[in-house]
Amino acid sequence: MSAKIVDGRIKNIKQVKSPYYNDRPINQPISLLVIHNISLPPKQYGGPYVEQLFTGKLDPNEHPYFAEIYQLQVSSHLFIRRDGEIIQFVPFDKRAWHAGKSVFEGKENCNDFSIGIEMEGCDSDDFTQAQYQQLANVTTLLKQNYPIKNITGHSDIAPGRKTDPGPHFNWHYYQKLVNQQTQINAIINQLNSIKYELQHLNLWQPSPPAPEAFLSEQPFALDTMQPHEWLQWIFIPRMQALIDAKSEIPKFALHPYFEEAFKEVQEIEVNKLLTLIKQLDELATNQSIVE
Ligand SMILES: [Zn+2]
């Protein structure tokens, strides 16, 4: 997700202000993500009623169930609809009222130190692919911005009282998506670091090699390009295309070739570049533990 958080709010998503929040206690870092499910009326999707509940505007006459709950003062930071739309109600640096009486690893009042995410759903339906993808995206974004250490379900911090996100929430799949997203972000950062290092070494070229050079059938185009040219004109664009297409990143090992290729080089300091390439190899290889 190329989204950004400014003043506790995700830019460019729908913002609906809830009155149901207050300040977090001081010295309580945001360390926990709590996943919930909600649908209003229960098991019905797409209506305006969750937004109305979280903003104190639910009409008790519209549905018998609403009459039971319309006076509740509840909110969450985020609500992810079935189609993947994300709505934010409370800035992350404020305390939303989503967890109620709760305890995580001995610490009570999870609202103090958590971010609450409501998935539009119920305990008896699968969640949608779009929801998992968006949940993984915001999880990665939140982890970049806050010291989140754990992710849990409402039922885990309020057992006996709450059952959401329920047995249909696929924790394994969610974790896998988060790991993939985290890995992709790390690879993007690493590619940028390699680009900056090539620029720093004056090896980043303003214009590409001759078209014939791209026709090489050798690994690393080693008969037609310099190692750094291959990085700039073949490898980095190819990786970028895979990432843009959301294709799987293959495992690769560039470091042995570059270490060999740079052996004779005396006039430039390639150690940092080699280290960056080695780290990139490791990032691509580590995806095996994602499964
Ligand atoms: Zn809940």
List the main descriptive attributes of the protein structure presented here:
291 residues; alpha/beta; Lysozyme-like; de novo design (two linked rop proteins); 35% helix; elongated; binds zinc ion; 1,6-anhydro-N-acetylmuramyl-L-alanine amidase AmpD; hydrolase; YqcC-like_sf; zinc
List the helices and strands and how they pair.
Blueprint: E1 5-6, E2 9-10, E3 14-15, E4 21-23, E5 32-38, H1 49-54, H2 64-69, E6 78-80, E7 86-88, E8 94-96, E9 103-104, E10 107-108, E11 114-120, H3 129-145, E12 150-153, H4 154-157, H5 171-200, H6 227-244, H7 255-261, H8 271-285
Helix pairs in contact: 3-5, 5-6, 5-8
Zinc ion (ZN) is lined by residues 36, 154, 162, 164.
EC number: 3.5.1.28
Protein name: 1,6-anhydro-N-acetylmuramyl-L-alanine amidase AmpD
Keywords: Cell wall biogenesis/degradation, Cytoplasm, Hydrolase, Metal-binding, Zinc
What does this entry show, briefly?
By secondary structure, the protein is an alpha/beta fold.
Strand content: 5-15%
Count of DSSP-assigned helices: 8
As a whole number of angstroms, the C-alpha radius of gyration is 24 Å
In round numbers, the mean pLDDT is 95
**What is the correct CATH architecture of the largest domain?**
3-Layer(aba) Sandwich
Distance between the ends: 21 Å
The best one-word shape is elongated
- CATH classification class of the largest domain: Alpha Beta
Sheet with most strands: 6 strands, mixed
User: What is the name of the CATH topology of the largest domain?
Assistant: Lysozyme-like
Helix content: 25-40%
The unreliable regions are none
Helix-strand topology string: EEEEEHHEEEEEEHEHHHHH
The strands making up the biggest β-sheet line up spatially as: 3-7-6-11-5-12
Q: How many beta-strand runs?
A: 12
CATH homologous superfamily title of the largest domain? Peptidoglycan recognition protein-like
Content-based structural category: alpha/beta
Bound molecules: zinc ion
Total domain count: 2
